[in-house]
Amino acid sequence: MSGFRSAASSFSGGPRPGMNSPWDTPVATPFESPATTPGGSPVLRDSDGKRLPKAADIHMILSDVDGTLFTDAHELHPRVRDAIQYIRKIRPEIPIIPVTGKQLPSCQSLIKDLGIEDMPAGCMHGAIIYDNQRKIEQEMYLDGHFVRDVSRLMRKHNKSTFLYVEDWNAMVTKEENGTKDWEQVARGFDPAVKDEREGDFMQKVLKGKERIYKVFLPMDEEVVPQFIELIEKTFPTVPFKITRALPYIIEIVAEGVDKSAALAFFAAKFNVRPENIITFGDGENDVGMFGAAGYSVAMANGMPKPKAVAKYQTTSNDDGGVGRFLDMIFRPEYVKEPDAGLSVDHLKALDAQLGAASASPLAAGLYP
């Protein structure tokens, strides 16, 4: 069984008249923009010739973080930062919300850099939804006995297991003599890792003193399918969900946790129709969110499933793909490409300033 506490329980006196539950929000169908912009000009199209939404059609932006907003180095791409900050400036009424497999502490620098401190967040695939004061509005967590049994199964097969509480995660098994240091891999996504292979952490889980929102199982990609099958066969009657944000990581969450549910929650919270929501992502955990939104955009670096279901595709996370796509909608005339090189005149001026012309690339004949 999974633990669940609804946001509705945090409201005194129950739901207000006319307030719908987030779970009542209908699933969207793909929404087509009109043929022209309000001024009668031709519609904007992406590189594949698909019609882009008008800026006025976008009332909410939801995005994954790792592999989407973040580069492979776990850094925010400047193009993404600039595009979102621009939208915040000209359209401050648009909620821009991270919906991610990460824990909230691992998103704090991103939230600050994007200027979305006043926005809510969906973390650990939507297992926890925070309001803009960083208080939990809704949470769903795994049964402690199931968590223990999965950990035992991974230990038996010499695989690493990381158990995610709200703001840190416990390493309870570690693969020996593996091809990678999976502890370091885990720290790359959520740095607050504690070695809990010894001690009473699991007893706290069993007693409900520690809630586990996600089980994180990194391993060599080629063995992932057999371990998914093993887990599903070992626990045929237990309610849980397996998802993947990356090909080499199995993630287990409570049944009912999905980014599409987070989308429904935020749509109801802000009174936004799903067909006016644009979503960005790269993993299989983004597929549900893509299906629920009017506009879905897969990253070029994404897994096959999200690419197959997304309405659009943008360039990779390392190319600032989210920023590039948003710029096509909100400032289509904006061009900000990196300069391939400096002019010869500029190089000469630099040489003069440095007083080292004899050793400069220009003097060495490396520039025409």
Would you mind describing this structure in some detail?
It is a single chain. With 368 residues, the chain is of the alpha/beta class. It has 3 domains: 3-140 and 258-330, 3-Layer(aba) Sandwich (Rossmann fold), CATH 3.40.50.1000; 141-254, Hypothetical Protein, Haloacid Dehalogenase-like Hydrolase, Chain: A, domain 2, CATH 3.30.1240.10; 342-368, no CATH class. The protein is built from 11 helices and 15 strands. A 6-stranded mixed β-sheet has the order 9-8-7-10-12-11, sandwiched between helices. A 5-stranded parallel β-sheet has the order 3-2-13-14-15. Strand 11 and strand 12 form a beta hairpin. The longest helix is centred in the first third of the chain and has 13 residues, at 78-90. It is globular and about 55 Å long. 41% of the residues are buried. One of its GO terms (molecular function) is magnesium ion binding. Residues 1-49 are annotated as: Disordered.
Helix content: 25-40%
Q: Tell me, briefly, the overall form.
A: globular
Number of helices: 11
Average pLDDT, to the nearest integer?
A: 85
Strand content: 15-25%
Q: What is the CATH architecture term of the largest domain? A: 3-Layer(aba) Sandwich
CATH topology category name of the largest domain: Rossmann fold
Which segments are poorly predicted (pLDDT under 50) over 5 or more consecutive residues?
Answer: 4-41, 338-343, 356-368
Rg value:
23 Å
Number-wise, the strands total 15
User: Into how many domains do the coordinates divide?
Assistant: 3
